[in-house]
From TrEMBL:
<dbReference type="InterPro" id="IPR011990">
    <property type="entry name" value="TPR-like_helical_dom_sf"/>
</dbReference>
<keyword id="KW-0238">DNA-binding</keyword>
<keyword id="KW-0804">Transcription</keyword>
<dbReference type="Pfam" id="PF00196">
    <property type="entry name" value="GerE"/>
</dbReference>
<dbReference type="InterPro" id="IPR036388">
    <property type="entry name" value="WH-like_DNA-bd_sf"/>
</dbReference>
<feature type="domain" description="HTH luxR-type">
    <location>
        <begin position="476"/>
        <end position="541"/>
    </location>
</feature>
<dbReference type="InterPro" id="IPR000792">
    <property type="entry name" value="Tscrpt_reg_LuxR_C"/>
</dbReference>
<keyword id="KW-0805">Transcription regulation</keyword>
<dbReference type="InterPro" id="IPR016032">
    <property type="entry name" value="Sig_transdc_resp-reg_C-effctor"/>
</dbReference>
<protein>
    <submittedName>
        <fullName>Response regulator transcription factor</fullName>
    </submittedName>
</protein>
Length: 546
């Protein structure tokens, strides 16, 4: 069939209906170049551009706005204006968002009885939330939901219910929030909501679950977001954010290599075709995984990359300083982060890290204050995640105060919580604290069991610095490694997280020779794995925060 603008338009519409966004964008754009599209098709083109990560979407939607005005379709033009407002809000361009919202309000002044009356209430509710006025936000979203139900507008209803849930969470009422979020999730996964609205809502639902400290529900919602993205292979928008959420949860559940792969994939997707602010979250997640594995240079590079998007990449950067033995710098960084504004879920993470860092820096009152604030959050929300974090922080402070029986009790509570959440790294860190408490109580056998169990988990995860620290606590200091110069080079590269192929390329050796050296290293040092070899390198000071 010969190419014609009419054929391109037809194929573009068909591709759009099948959710083949890249094909829809290419065909509709070609048709538009040949002959300007009408407003309905411009809106399809705008959606396809947005969903495939092209910045031209806003320009197409603006043209649709003007096209509807020319047809005297004031409600349709107002709807375009509100969607432009929402897209600019998501991009952090508040002035442009406000301008489009003002246009929508002006147009709707003459259209009192239409579904579009509910749309401006969504950005108004978001603005109230941003300014801390939860009552005004809830009122705006409730009014939007009422309009949506009256006119059976599924997109508006999903946006309004998500906003209501966010308002309830901000007002410390997570139970009411979750009822709305569950209903929204059903509507989106059933395909009742348009793709642009569905993506916005799914990402907001995951963030809302995290803000409510509900990790199990966040995992379920992330799985739903993943399935939704996977069903649309040409989707670019949202897929990167989805991978960041997946990486965070994979890290929590101990799947670190998979988490790093997801975070790196997210970073690549969020950098093309143009860089998006969420790329900072992907880089921060990569940095965290590098830090935990002891790849400090790679972690620092990723934190610095994240800082282009995230004002202060904390608490990871401060924890990196602590792992490098720079407790004073770490304390300064975490205090700075705590003094600034942060959303509640981020503050909880800062507080947990602050307890560890400030205790290491000798600031027991500061650590106590952080632990107390964590306890208050746990009491307000009652989530397993917060309770475990708060109990762990309280236990660490109690050890520092030599209130050891109380510390053991709180740490057992923390361990139970982390086990319930299937969080092996956090569980192992609690066992190290339990070992310290038992040792101070004079129960060497119990301390040994806790340290051994924690060390085993750290080695399984590849948490080399933590494993090395436990070896020091256990007094397992071997003599200098009986390795050749070449074996020492290979060991250092293994500890840096490099594969045999990467080591072979760096040292100009064959992979077979590298594999032989790795086997020899493990045999000579009586080690069972590459993770154990990495821990050995840390334990013996062969890697010094490099």
């Amino acid at each position: 069939m010969a190419w014609t603008p009419a054929n391109a338009l037809l194929h573009g519409r068909q591709a759009f209906g099948r959710r083949q966004w890249a094909a829809a964008f290419a065909q509709l754009e070609a048709a538009d170049r040949a002959a300007a599209l009408d407003p309905e098709d411009l809106e399809r083109l705008a959606d396809a551009a947005y969903l495939t990560g092209h910045r031209e979407g806003g320009a197409y939607l603006a043209r649709a706005y003007h096209g509807r005005l020319e047809r005297s379709d004031r409600p349709g033009a107002a709807r375009c204006a509100v969607w432009l407002c929402l897209q600019y809000l998501l991009q952090g361009e508040a002035n442009l968002a406000g301008g489009w919202l003002a246009r929508a309000r002006r147009l709707l002044a003459d259209c009192p009885d239409c579904a579009e009356q509910g749309y401006p209430l969504v950005p108004e509710g978001l603005s109230a939330l941003e300014h801390g006025d939860t009552a005004a936000a809830a009122s705006a979203f409730a009014a939007a939901a009422a309009v949506a139900e009256r006119f059976a507008d599924r997109d508006l209803l999903a946006l309004a219910r998500t906003g209501l849930a966010q308002s309830f969470i901000a007002a410390d009422n997570p139970e009411a929030a979750m009822a709305h979020l569950d209903e929204v999730l059903v509507e989106v996964t059933a395909g009742e909501v348009s793709a642009v609205a569905a993506g916005i809502v799914l990402c907001a639902v995951v963030e809302a679950c995290l803000e409510a400290f509900d990790l199990p529900r966040a995992g379920e919602c992330t799985a739903a977001l993943t399935q939704w993205c996977d069903a649309q292979p040409e989707l670019v928008s949202y897929r990167g954010q989805c991978l960041v959420h997946r990486a965070r949860l994979m890290q929590l559940h101990g799947s670190w290599p998979e988490a790093l792969a997801a975070a790196q994939d997210a970073g690549a997707r969020l950098s093309e075709p143009v860089a998006q602010p969420a790329a900072g979250a992907a880089l921060y997640q990569q940095a965290e995984l590098h830090r935990l594995a002891g790849r400090f240079a790679a972690a620092e590079e990723a934190y610095l990359g994240a800082s282009r998007w995230v004002r202060d990449p904390q608490p990871g950067l401060a924890l990196l300083q602590l792992m490098r033995g720079k407790a004073g710098a770490a304390a300064a960084g975490i205090r700075r982060a705590l003094s600034g504004g942060s959303v509640r879920v981020e503050r909880a993470g800062l507080l947990g890290a602050a307890v560890e860092i400030l205790l290491a820096a000798g600031d027991r009152p500061g650590a106590q204050a952080a632990a107390d604030e964590l306890g208050q959050l746990a009491s307000a929300f009652g989530s397993t995640w917060l309770k475990a974090e708060a109990a762990q922080g309280a236990g660490a402070v109690l050890i520092a105060e030599h209130r050891l029986p109380e510390a053991v009790e709180r740490l057992h509570q923390a361990w139970t919580g982390w086990q319930e959440l299937d969080a092996p790294y956090e569980s192992a860190r609690v066992r190290v604290l339990l070992g310290l408490a038992y040792r101070a109580l004079g129960d060497g056998q119990a301390a040994q069991m806790e340290f051994d169990a924690a060390r085993w988990v750290f080695l399984q995860l590849g948490a080399a610095p933590d494993a090395a620290r436990v070896d020091v606590l256990l007094g397992r200091h071997r003599s200098a490694p009986p390795l050749s110069a070449r074996e020492t080079e290979v060991l250092l590269l293994v500890a840096a997280g490099k594969t045999n192929r990467e080591i072979a390329a760096e040292l100009f050796l064959s992979e077979k020779t590298v594999a032989h050296h790795v086997g020899s290293i493990l045999t000579k040092l009586d080690l069972s794995s590459r993770a154990a070899a990495t821990a050995y390198a840390y334990e013996h000071g062969m890697i010094r925060g490099s």
